[in-house]
Design brief:
Elements lengths: L1 E9 L3 E3 L9 H11 L3 E5 H7 L7 E5 L10 E4 L2 H6 L6 E4 L3 H7 L5 E7 L8 E2 L8 E9 L9 E8 L1
Parallel strand pairs: 1-6, 1-7, 3-4, 3-6, 4-5
Antiparallel strand pairs: 2-8, 7-10, 9-10
């Protein structure tokens, strides 16, 4: 099983402001959907609540310490490791946030799908951890220039563990 992290991050490592994405980039949402459909996605409770509902055509796994938390269409787990065990038969599983989940899972990941959003976000409240250049090797990158639908240029990068 390949454990992949999927994230969009600003130039100053911001991934969220008050439990929301700091941008709306249809090109990145399309990329996210293309990668995750028919796969399991693992996220923290706050990330799930910011999305508001289970994402269709995906197995939605939520990490929370609240043993009473329930949501229709979602599987609850106490830890990332516990969730990963239930996905061990899958080819690839995606960890989609938020900041605490990324921090806890980056050492477990085999692959990183990072959308670099060409902007700086002031007052960020959630951040992506620094990537250790000794631990990761960039294997591809594709640029998408800002346009009428996408306010910012972004770079789709894929890394494998070195």
């Amino acid at each position: 099983m390949i454990v992949s992290i999927l994230v969009a991050v600003s130039e100053n490592n911001v991934i969220g402001v008050d439990n929301q994405l700091p941008w709306h980039l249809p090109v990145d949402l399309k990329y996210f959907k293309q990668l995750t459909v028919d796969h399991s996605i693992i996220m923290g409770r706050k990330t799930f609540e910011s999305i508001g509902k289970p994402l269709p055509n995906r197995r939605n796994l939520v990490i929370t310490g609240n043993g009473n938390w329930q949501q229709e269409g979602v599987e609850r787990f106490a830890s990332i490791q516990e969730a990963l065990v239930t996905c061990s038969h899958e080819q690839e599983v995606f960890i989609i946030g938020g900041g605490m989940i990324y921090k806890e899972s980056i050492e477990l990941a085999d692959k990183l799908y990072i959308t670099r959003v060409r902007t700086r976000v002031e007052h960020g409240t959630a951040f992506f951890p620094e990537i250790d250049p000794e631990a990761w090797r960039l294997i591809s990158e594709t640029e998408h220039l800002a346009d009428e639908k996408n306010k910012f240029t972004c770079l789709f990068e894929v890394y494998e563990r070195a």
